[in-house]
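I am still getting used to backbone structure tokens and would like to learn alongside you. Would you supply a protein for us yourself, any chain you care to pick? Start from the sequence, derive the backbone structure tokens from it, and show both lines together. Go ahead whenever you are ready, and we will take it from there.
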Amino acid sequence: MNEKLKFISPESNSFSMGINYAEILKKSLKFAIQPKRWAPFFVLDFVFLSIVIIYTLTNIADVISLMMVPNDITLLASLVPYFSAILALFASWMLIRFWITGAIIHQSNKENEYKKSFTYSAKKYPAILAVMIIMGILGFATSVIPYVGWLLSIIVSLMFFFAIQVVIVNNKSFSEGLSKSYNIFRKNAFNVLLSWLLLAIISIAIMIIFALPMFALFFNVAQLSSTAVSQETLASYIIGLSQAYLPVLLIVGACLVVGIAISTVFSLKAQTEIFMKVKK
């Protein structure tokens, strides 16, 4: 098993020669399932998800009406405070997530420095934020290019695949993080792509497993909605159903959030382990 996952490229370069993927994946999964590792992501995501769900339920009548009549300017104007609040919540969620991401990367490098990781991430936060903003701008700018935008945005992600690791592990500035990550990609593009694909597939698989209860709930609700009500009464029926299923929705939502948190920590840990092999 280990030998099969120890990839050696046609050039037999140092990147591929030094990576034992089986060992890294096993170590990363063991790290990711530790509650203290995924708990910060879980708490953050669950709190914000709960706020969004409850806040949406209080405005669900107008939201559903807007979905059915999207050209109603008056209705759209009445929902501006709702969408503004959701946007503000999303921005806050992202900013806090960046901080936790830095802490998890530091823990991935120094597993015993749990408490220190959060203060260290706060110290490096300006550089983390700068990297995220630049990657976001470049990713968006390339994604809107017709036909090839999706491919170019993936290339941007690969170019800066290790940028945050450079900032945290090597204690570098955001510009050095971007530069070092790009140099690794330039010399080992195929191997970076292999690592990216491997981590993406496993992370998605973890999330799907934890999302099964949510899928089952939505499937049952969709069946009830399609057979029990007419188009005219659909909005009121969904409102009543959402309120009745709120406790169940929060439970299955928590299950999904646990999966997202574990997959995120797994990916960050594995990414950092790979970086440790190639940074020399």
The chain is about 85% helix and 0% strand. The two ends are 26 Å apart (CA to CA). The chain has one domain: 19-278.
